[in-house]
Specification:
The chain folds into 4 domains: 109 residues, no CATH class; 61 residues; 110 residues, no CATH class; 41 residues. It has 9 helices and 14 strands. Helix 5 packs parallel to helix 7. The chain is an alpha+beta fold and 340 residues long. The longest helix is centred in the C-terminal third of the chain and has 43 residues. It has a 5-stranded antiparallel beta sheet with strand order 10-11-12-13-14. A 3-stranded antiparallel beta sheet has the order 1-2-3. The chain is 38% helix and 24% strand. The structure holds zinc ion. The site of zinc ion has 7 residues, from loops.
Length: 340
């Protein structure tokens, strides 16, 4: 059934197409017989009826077809034809935006296709699920020809990335750099992962004690993480040790995890913290933490020990010399008094 110009199939069949008339019974028509104009394509064994003609005649055509089905049950059941509508193929009228159907009154009408809409909602849903996935920290556009920046999930630049290109990842994709607009927030998210609820407190802590974004970047890339439940203390997990930076007056104080020495070179970390002598601002303390390893600490201890031993030897030597001299003097005195 079709409007011939509207269908591509018509171009294919037009050379062999024949104008025909379908004879149907209409009790209201003169002589009860009605001719329905149609086109026939012999090699496809298909009949084409224009949609306006179809709308006009379908009710009577339908009755004739029903009689045909009734008289040819075997033929019809083999081909899955149970009712007159089963031989109507509306596919040629399908389009991207609308879908044809036959109404109860035997007319072809169209409903808007909802395909485009669901597609859009689907990619929107996919975007949201990427945003909601707690493993995803970095968000970016899959368009590698663009600026190749990764963003924090709250960065406003994300609004300009279309749903289809929207990507989320737990790792920094190759060749991407941190967006300048959201860098600080993203670094804090990275540093206190997975405790995302602590982001505002950590951000407040770094802000209050003036830690720069460059410093944050340095420590995060060294693998140092941090956590803060409130503004009184931030726990910093350094390379090997754990530290606390505690609010103290207007400034901060540095606290180092307690440990028990097992031998000259071995130790194990225990509960609690002791204050580390480290006077300076928070950035200075972070540098201290970045530079601290147990090995370096031992090297420092060793240097101190060696220095102490050297000093002790010098003292001992002088001591010995003095002693020597002292005894010699005593001996001389004793001799002088003739007591020996
Ligand atoms: Zn950004």
């Amino acid at each position: 059934m079709c409007n011939e110009s509207a269908i591509s199939e018509y171009q294919r069949v037009r050379k062999e197409i024949l104008e025909v008339g379908l004879i149907t019974i209409n009790p209201h028509a003169a002589g009860m017989i009605e001719i329905v104009p149609a086109l026939y394509a012999p090699s496809y064994k298909r009949i084409y009826i224009k949609d306006d003609v179809f709308n006009k005649h379908w009710r009577h055509l339908k009755k004739s077809i029903a009689i045909g089905i009734e008289n040819n049950p075997e033929y019809c059941s083999e081909r899955g034809i149970e009712k007159p509508e089963d031989i109507v193929d509306l596919r040629v009228l399908h389009s991207y935006s609308r879908e044809p159907y036959i109404t109860n009154h035997g007319k072809i009408e169209y409903k808007a296709r909802k395909q485009e809409q669901p597609k859009k909602t689907e990619s929107k849903r996919a975007r949201q699920s990427k945003l909601d996935n707690p493993k995803n920290i970095y968000f970016y556009s899959s368009n590698r020809d663009g600026s190749r920046q990764i963003h924090d999930k709250e960065c406003e630049v994300l609004d300009s990335i279309p749903d289809e290109k929207f990507m989320g990842s737990s790792e920094v994709p190759d060749g991407y750099i941190l967006c300048r607009k959201c860098k600080r927030k993203l670094l804090i998210r990275m540093g206190c992962y997975p405790n995302t609820k602590q982001i505002p407190t950590c951000a407040g802590f770094f802000q209050k004690y003036r830690v720069s974004t460059a410093e944050l970047e340095r420590m995060v890339y060294m693998g140092i993480t941090f956590h803060a439940e409130d503004m009184s203390v931030m726990t910093v997990n350094g390379i090997e040790d754990n530290w606390q930076i505690r609010a103290s007056g207007d400034g901060v104080s540095l606290w180092h995890n307690n440990y028990v020495k097992l031998s000259d070179t071995e130790r194990y970390i225990t509960d609690g913290f002791h204050e580390q002598k480290c006077n300076g601002n928070m950035t200075y303390m972070l540098h201290y933490i970045e530079g601290y390893t147990w090995e370096k600490h031992l090297e420092g201890e060793e240097r101190k020990k060696v220095k102490a031993e050297e000093e002790a030897r010098t003292i001992a030597h002088e001591e010995e010399r003095r002693t020597h001299w002292y005894y010699r003097f005593i001996d001389r005195v004793k001799r002088f008094f003739g007591r020996k």
